[in-house]
Specification:
Number of helices: 11
Structural class: alpha/beta
Radius of gyration: 23 Å
Helix content: 40-55%
Oligomer: single chain
Strand content: 15-25%
CATH architecture of the largest domain: Alpha-Beta Barrel
Strand order of the largest sheet: 6-11-10-9-8-7
Number of domains: 2
CATH class of the largest domain: Alpha Beta
Largest sheet: 6 strands, parallel
């Protein structure tokens, strides 16, 4: 499960603010008096599921602790177009200087939560889980995987140290699926790594599936198999082995895969291709002091 460290988030936010030169907003300096205050409304312009609000809140706080932040929704909430997400009050320059960085995080992460939720809704009632992959934006993995949770999905392995996923190149290196699984078990028995690390093997053909079943890993991943092949594979794999499908699974065919009895479907697109959720911020300024 994604666990987001506040210190890591602060470092990420500070880099983003530096990238945007938020401390040198020339337009705000030229057009807004230093003492001028205002109120900003953050509003959803499309339906979706929210994520990243805690990050956005931290952006405004770091830019100016004097900004009062009243969040009307929380991460994981569904919103419709027109729903108010937050009411912010404080120095107008600071509100505008923080706006883009805050919205960039919220829109991107809400897009992931919304895309995940769409798949979760499609497979609802089948018992099949929607899981993510490591196809994430460098530096944003923990936040993106947290967004998957907000959308109702499940996190796959967080990194290369939290699980063993044997793919075709590993099989080539080891010589066979059986040898690869044996070698993975030997490494885990050495006691140098976490005891809860699992072993998964990717299969592209039925012959590979038979070899994998005989070697009994924790998880078998069916790569780019059709729903018909997946149903056949389900009959071959004992319930003691988690069965996962991945590759070319879309909203239009996800339920067909889920109804085969597969335990979960892995969708890289929910993190690497999710469109941002349309969210805007509009301000109303108090009359400047004379």
């Amino acid at each position: 499960m994604a666990v987001v460290n506040i210190h890591d988030v602060d470092e990420l936010i500070c880099r983003a603010l530096l990238e945007d030169a938020a401390n040198c907003d020339l337009t705000a300096q030229a057009t807004i008096a230093a003492a001028q205050t205002g109120t900003a409304l953050i509003t959803a312009k499309a339906a979706g599921v929210l994520s990243g609000l805690a990050v956005g809140d931290r952006v405004f706080s770091l830019v100016d602790a004097g900004i009062t932040r009243e969040w009307q929704r929380v991460d994981g909430d569904a919103v419709a177009a027109g729903d108010c997400i937050a009411i912010l009050t404080g120095p107008l320059r600071a509100l505008l200087s923080a706006e883009r960085t805050a919205l960039n995080f919220i829109q991107h992460l809400s897009g992931i939560a919304s895309a995940t939720h769409a798949f979760v809704e499609v497979v609802a009632g089948t018992g099949c889980a929607v899981v993510d992959t490591r196809k994430t934006t460098p530096g944003l993995r923990h936040l993106e995987k947290q967004a998957v949770l907000h959308g109702g999905g499940v996190n796959h392995r967080m990194d290369l140290a939290s699980g063993m996923l044997i793919k075709e190149n590993h099989i080539l290196g080891a010589g066979s699926i059986a040898a690869a699984i044996t070698n993975c078990r030997a490494l885990l028995r050495s006691g140098e790594h976490a005891s809860d690390v699992w072993i998964e093997v990717e299969c592209e053909t039925m012959d590979e599936l038979r070899e994998a079943v005989d070697a009994a890993p924790d998880i078998i991943l069916l790569d780019n198999m059709s729903p018909q092949q997946t149903r056949q594979a389900r009959d071959m794999v004992p319930a003691s082995i988690v069965l996962e499908s991945s590759g070319n699974i879309t909203l239009s065919n996800a339920r067909a895969y889920a109804e085969t009895g597969v335990d979960r479907i892995a969708i890289g697109a929910i993190t690497h291709s999710a469109p941002a959720l349309d969210i805007s911020m509009r301000v109303s300024a108090a009359a400047p002091e004379v």
